[in-house]
Amino acid sequence: MTAQLKVGKRILHLRNDLGLSQEKLALKADIDRTYLTGVENGKRNISIKNIEKICKALEISLKDFFNDNLFDLN
Amino acid sequence: MTAQLKVGKRILHLRNDLGLSQEKLALKADIDRTYLTGVENGKRNISIKNIEKICKALEISLKDFFNDNLFDLN
DNA sequence: TTTAATTGTGACTTAAAGTCCGTTGACTTA
DNA sequence: TAAGTCAACGGACTTTAAGTCACAATTAAA
Q: In chain A, where are the structural domains located?
């Protein structure tokens, strides 16, 4: 699994926890809804700036965002 | 402090722990030497793919890379 | 079973990422 | 003082992520 897909899965999971639609989250993060779709599906090689934007909208630190088994070695 | 700068500081710190020069690490990570300089100095908005490349070269997981006070909530 | 909300896709432009060439200055050691 | 390593920087490129759009497809709910 690529890193992009891991990031996408993580965002999807956290977004569902908050009960937000892609559109609501995209608005909150000030990014395009269809871009967020691409990120969640691992189609976009997202940058640290946009990861940070999304983390802020998800109300989570970068530390906690990556603190998941997904991001363990292999 | 921007997320880019935090990433740069983290890479620098881990690189020094391993006693590697920028050039050695860049070679190991298969990225450009001058690009790594920019990343370490917080001038580059690095993507998740390249963060992963550098983490592999630093022999650390993404989870551990971001498991640092730098990446706590403000 | 139509309507409405939500998510996914392809294609595109443009702004920036990333590479490759080199130079410079600081520091170290022979 | 010459030679080497290292980090930072710059110009000129090529490649790719960011960002947007119209529309299709899926799901929920009425």
A: 3-71
Q: What is the pTM of this model?
A: 0.94
- Whether B49 and A4 lie within 8 Å, measured CB to CB: yes
Closest residue in B to A51 (Cα) is B48
Instruction: Compute the distance between CA of residue B65 and CA of residue B57 in angstroms, rounded to an integer.
Output: 12
> C-alpha distances in angstroms, B38 versus A51, B8, B22, B27, B53?
19, 8, 11, 15, 16
Fold of A3-71: 434 Repressor (Amino-terminal Domain) (1.10.260)
Mean pLDDT, rounded, for B35-62 = 97
Between CA A21 and C1' C1 the distance (Å) reads 25
